[in-house]
TrEMBL record:
Keyword Signal: no
InterPro entries, A to Z: Cholesterol_7-desaturase, Rieske_2Fe-2S, Rieske_2Fe-2S_sf
Signal peptide coordinates: none
One Pfam family it belongs to: Rieske
Protein name: Rieske 2Fe-2S domain-containing protein
UniProt superkingdom: Bacteria
Chief localization: membrane
Amino acid sequence: MARLTTIDPAGTQIPGPSATLIYDDWYPAIRSSELRAKQLKTAMLLDFPLVLGRRNDGSIFAMRDSCPHRGIPLSVGWFDGNRVTCRYHGWEFEPCSGRCELIPSLSSHDHLDATKIYATSFPCVERDGYAWVYVPGPGSGRVKDVDALPPVPELPKFSQHYRSAHLTADLPCNVDHGIIGLMDPAHGPFVHQAWWWRSRSSIREKTKRFEPIPEGFRMAAHAPSGNSAPYKLLGIYGEPVETTIDFVLPNRRSETIRCGKKWFASLTTITPVTASTCRIDVIGAWNVFYYVPFVTPIAKFFGAKFVQQDQETMIQQAEGLRHNPSLMLIDDADKPAKWYFALKQARLDGSGKHPMDGPVDLHWRS
């Protein structure tokens, strides 16, 4: 159970070392390029140990990394491209459904129907270079109607030809701290100081309009910050630049930047690995400077530096959080964090209540 600290007079709370997790949703478990035929890969997702693989037909799967017989990890067994075999007693499972297909120890005197036994499997879809796994709540049982699930998240693209890149980093904090750090508009000039981004001396007052959207909020379309060098580069196209940023539960921040026919889009997720650790994953796609040689490795280099700065800050913050200090959320710069906690609570208690009554302008300096 999360340890809570009251922050401000409004009663907003931030958990201490661990956070309450949101189940019944899609999360990226692993890069899908790591899943190759007849190989098994492991991942931890929302405190579930997973084993993942790619079948001979190209489809991918995710199972709980535990044999229902004696609990040995299925990942230490064998996978022939069609069935996962437990190395303890040779039980064979169809990995997409989890159905047991064979129990070698059964004799002619046994009447057990092996196909009525299921290992835990999870809906798993390959999208935008990730294996997205739908994680039901503990004890919910097997998901039988996959078609009834919400759609798998997808990065928007606005042209047929584009380049893309992926970044990832482990964070030694719970998902709540990771998410409110992700949406924090005031840390940029301090955490991300660089000649190619911004500096403390570039801080200026900003006003942005936010709008409620289902299970989230949107920073409405606006001209991007003029004190960030990457945005300035788009000025060479001579057309207005406009960006929109969305946050949607449980963990997704998407940004689109449009400049005429040129565009950049990113989807960033903060995924809980355990109740006290998480991981940041970023996929970006763009058609800006599409024909410039080496643009993808250059973009990945600077993007990795950016993510590394966030990672180093979260490592430093984790050291301070070990002592369970009192924390605070203040004024407009922290309003998105307050909205996140209210949205999460509404999701957990099933009320569906949105913390925003309508559009609102927020003001801060960054």
